[in-house]
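ARCHIVE CARD
SHELF: 3
SLOT: left
DATA:
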Amino acid sequence: MRGVLWLAWRQQRLMITTGIVLLAATAAWAAYRRSELMTLIDDYGFVPCKGWNGGCESLGSFLVLDASTGSIRALGTLGLALPALIGVFWGAPLLGREMETGTFKLALTQGVSGRRWFAARFGLAALFTVLAAGVVAALVAWWWAPVSNTLNGLYWYDAYIYNATGPASVACALFGLATGTAVGLLVRRTLPAMAVTFAAIGTATLLTRMLRSSWIAPEMRVTPGMTPKTMVGSAWSTGEFGYLTPDGRQHDINTPVCQTSGEELRQCMAEHGFVARYHKVYPSSDFWTFQWIETAIYLGVAAVLVALVLFVLRRPAATVRAATVRAATERAATERAARAATTTGV
């Protein structure tokens, strides 16, 4: 390792080694707690009763979930917060501190282009970001798998699971790093850049969550007549319930309000000409569809931000090179003048 890569390692090694130690500690804790979970599953005769379908729940199942859900949620919170942590404490200072102190000029006067200098620093940070996000995502998924989508536990659409597992969590972490890097370069002061980065990443993840349900159409489950409705199970309910007329028109459950069962429901449906009930949900299989859509969005925005950084870096690099050439020219002229004066004096 040498050149700009060696310099990038020297400047980031404390952050990398600290992160690796924390990752190792987190993995050891997760492995220990998961072994406790597996022991409880064996001791209580845990039944994987997926969803709230009824008929398979037991006291042992609830005891297992009560003992494990909080800890899994804590690890999921780490995965949820990781993009912001990386963006604020690594991305924002990555270039922001260099710009604030002016130390970037030293690197650019050593015959190194701005792009090479940036590529070494950002590439090393991105490599560890992928490692950290991937490890945390794998730990959350591994720990959660035995009790996934069960009774009153955690479901695939919960933020602690969805935002902490799958490819989208890794892509979001890279997005966080790219956001912090771009903000640090533009703001050029570390502390303000950290604040702006936190706000930007928080806003982006919140908007993504709000818009998620509009990316694909939900599945509409239709229950003809008085047939018992299909249970929600592990699906993510949109909260859209209602009635259907013979021509397929949908009527929200609140207009009009009919009883949910019994003779009152039959009479109400007959009075309004309803022939079926509907409920819109996203089945658990949609997890991967949502994940790949978010992955593409986060990686696309991250690529745009990296391109912006490269574009902005062209100007200071050119300025520094011009200043260096100018200084060298002036120094050479001064030396020539000094030699000429010495010769004349002799």
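SLOT: right
DATA:
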Amino acid sequence: MNNDDPFDELMRRSLANEANRIEPTDALPEILTRAHAVRRPVTRRPWVVGAGLTAIGTAAAIGAFTVFNGNLNTANDGDAVAGQGTLTSASGAPTSTSVTPRNDPTTAPTLPKQSTQAVKPGEPEPMVASKAVPIYWLGDAVPLKTSAKKPTPQARSTTRLYRTWTKVSGRPAFQAVQIMTAKQPEDPDYYSVWKGAEVSSVTRADGVVTVDFKQFPVAEIDASTAEIAAQQLVYTVQGALNDSTQPVQVTQRGKAGAKLFGTIDTSTPLGRAQAVDVEALVSIESPTDRSAATSPVTVQGLAAASEATVNYLATNLKTGDMRKSVVNTAEGQKFSEFTFQLKLAPGLWQIEAYLTSAADGTISDMDTKTVEVVR
């Protein structure tokens, strides 16, 4: 059986006749013409058409490569990113070129550099022979160390400011900042993140207090803790100066603008935050931690209790003996003082003052002190 199609046979013969009529010619001029026609539209890259024609075959190959490379640069914007660069011409000689980046919305913006500005120092504070000043520390609203025989506390709450008192001589605010940055609190429940900071001066001018540091603290902490730590400085300085109205300008070596704790902007003065937002809602200020006391022990503190009620518990750390009750503050919802007395046998006691949640009775805020009752 013959499978040849008459139409197929006719096509083969026609193609053979056409091939026999073709005479070979020099195709190089046509190749050059086509290469020139391809390169001509790429007018925004003048170095493409500058290929030398010393060696005709080599020039054609380089022209084809140059067009291809130009298309790659357009897609990736490699020249726009690099800026000043060196390109190679068709003759092989390096050609210096400067390319202006195009306005491409997909190009990542250049981040501004951190700038600082000089701040003219004011007048130093007056010297004093002796003065009690407040020093503020950081602490957890609910300490991790808790007694077993009381409502279960929340696992962890926000960081708050806790106030202690100390006597200083010289320049009160300067001394207070030195203590806050260079020393550790006596209460192990408190702490500071200002390690590494070196204060140079505390001055005042035009209603602003300027605290200048030779060196900022080395810690880089989360933004929320950094805000409280910045307020630690503001509250300590303003407390030592007995003036809560003047904002605090923080500088490093006389210049403002550097980031404090890696997040706090110091280009403008820091104002005082609302006490309910940063201070501990309950704290014991007397007796101090690890101090000696005689019975009855007088406990004094400060609280912003929702129903003006502060709970307290005293536990003998050796025998487990407990004293538990409540005390009222002068006002609810506002910071008010509280005082109560405890008749305690000699020994080591832990005294706790705490607030409970109206919703479920869990402890929301607490402060503790350990005292040695001597008699």
